[in-house]
């Protein structure tokens, strides 16, 4: 079974062809980072326009690389939320047009569900398992009980962790996107140089990252002088200490959730799952606490259509198809 998948929830335009929910025949991604850098973040109107410019060539390239055609595919899958409405609309229009013209089933996919299923492209985990979903827009711990059956154990009450990375990087004048920049700079710093508070570390399973962001701002402001408008000599220490505080909270709460649910399989998902420290910390967990750890490859952590195709396969098997009037839902929940 071949599924053509389309993902345009934010600022990546992606199309992929996935076979039997596991084999990626093609996964083409066009990023817009260079267009948004000068604004320090994503501009929704620009994102939508860029999707329009590249969506058709990206789909054509995905089909060509997979050596298939519209006639040979079995279904068309597309992200319909959550995300930027303008961006989602471009992918939806393309997917519905293809499904109608080629007379193929349309499958609507939740973007968050797609991130979870990126792990199935690595190794199909046994149910139930705990998934830590970390990105620029979401931070949550999910117990995945079966295909399509999810229990959200904890979520952020304010900023997502990726959003906090972006805001701290912007405040320190490091650029955009903040996650990869802070990850790289942290390797030059001392993560124990500054003891930032770990918010809500011992309080349930929810997260709060706005406090860590504010702590960084307050630290820099306390050390400002007229001659030193920003603390440039230890910016690597600031980045490393901030990153360590965030990762400590993420790892601790995820392990606690796994223990509560008596589950020994943990999966990571989302763009922040590409963070090198987060990956190292999870890999260092002893086997008596964790029997199986799934971490997607770097290209499957960020937004991509292959993960949408993987999720769509299991919906196809249940004949969970969407109508051609499927609409984008910006705040779609899991």
From TrEMBL:
Binding note for cofactor: Binds 1 Fe(2+) ion per subunit.
GO MF annotation list: iron ion binding; tRNA N(6)-L-threonylcarbamoyladenine synthase activity
Protein name: tRNA N6-adenosine threonylcarbamoyltransferase
Cofactor annotation: Fe(2+)
CDD domains: ASKHA_NBD_TsaD_bac (cd24133)
Residues annotated for Fe cation binding in this entry: 111, 115, 303
UniProt binding sites for substrate: 133-137, 166, 179, 183, 275
GO annotation (BP), single: tRNA threonylcarbamoyladenosine modification
Assigned keywords, A-Z: Acyltransferase, Cytoplasm, Iron, Metal-binding, Transferase, tRNA processing
Superkingdom of the organism of origin: Bacteria
Function according to Swiss-Prot or TrEMBL: Required for the formation of a threonylcarbamoyl group on adenosine at position 37 (t(6)A37) in tRNAs that read codons beginning with adenine. Is involved in the transfer of the threonylcarbamoyl moiety of threonylcarbamoyl-AMP (TC-AMP) to the N6 group of A37, together with TsaE and TsaB. TsaD likely plays a direct catalytic role in this reaction.
Gene: tsaD
Family: Belongs to the KAE1 / TsaD family.
Positions of the Gcp-like domain: 23-309
Enzyme class name: transferase
Location(s), subcellular: Cytoplasm
């Amino acid at each position: 079974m071949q599924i053509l998948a389309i993902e345009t929830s934010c600022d990546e335009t992606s199309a992929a062809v996935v076979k039997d929910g596991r084999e990626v025949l093609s996964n083409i991604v066009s990023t817009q980072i260079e267009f948004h850098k000068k604004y320090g973040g994503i501009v929704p109107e620009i994102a939508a326009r860029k999707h329009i410019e590249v969506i058709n060539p990206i789909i054509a390239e995905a089909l060509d690389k997979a050596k298939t055609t519209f006639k040979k595919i079995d279904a068309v899958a597309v992200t319909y939320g959550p995300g930027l409405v303008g961006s989602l609309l471009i992918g939806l229009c393309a997917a519905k047009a293809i499904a109608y013209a080629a007379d193929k089933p349309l499958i609507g996919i939740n973007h968050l569900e797609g991130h979870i299923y990126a792990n199935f492209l690595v190794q199909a985990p046994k149910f139930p398992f705990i998934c830590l979903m970390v990105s620029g827009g979401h931070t949550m711990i999910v117990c995945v009980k079966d295909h399509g059956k999810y229990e959200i154990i904890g979520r952020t009450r304010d900023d997502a962790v990726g959003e906090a990375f972006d805001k701290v990087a912007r405040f320190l004048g490091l650029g955009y996107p903040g996650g990869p920049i802070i990850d790289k700079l942290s390797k030059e710093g001392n993560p124990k140089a500054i003891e930032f508070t770990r918010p809500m570390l011992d309080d349930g399973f929810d997260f709060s990252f706005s406090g860590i962001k504010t702590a960084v701002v307050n630290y820099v402001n306390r050390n400002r002088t007229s001659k030193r408008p920003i603390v440039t000599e230890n910016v690597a220490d600031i980045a490393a200490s901030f990153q360590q505080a965030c990762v400590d909270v993420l790892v601790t709460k995820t392990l606690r959730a796994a223990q509560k649910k008596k589950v020994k399989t943990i999966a990571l998902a989302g763009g922040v799952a590409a963070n090198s420290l987060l990956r190292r910390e999870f890999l260092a967990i002893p086997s008596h606490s964790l029997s199986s750890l799934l971490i997607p490859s770097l290209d499957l952590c960020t937004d991509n259509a292959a993960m949408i195709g993987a999720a769509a396969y299991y919906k196809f098997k249940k004949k969970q198809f969407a109508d051609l009037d499927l609409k984008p839902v910006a705040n779609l929940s899991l």
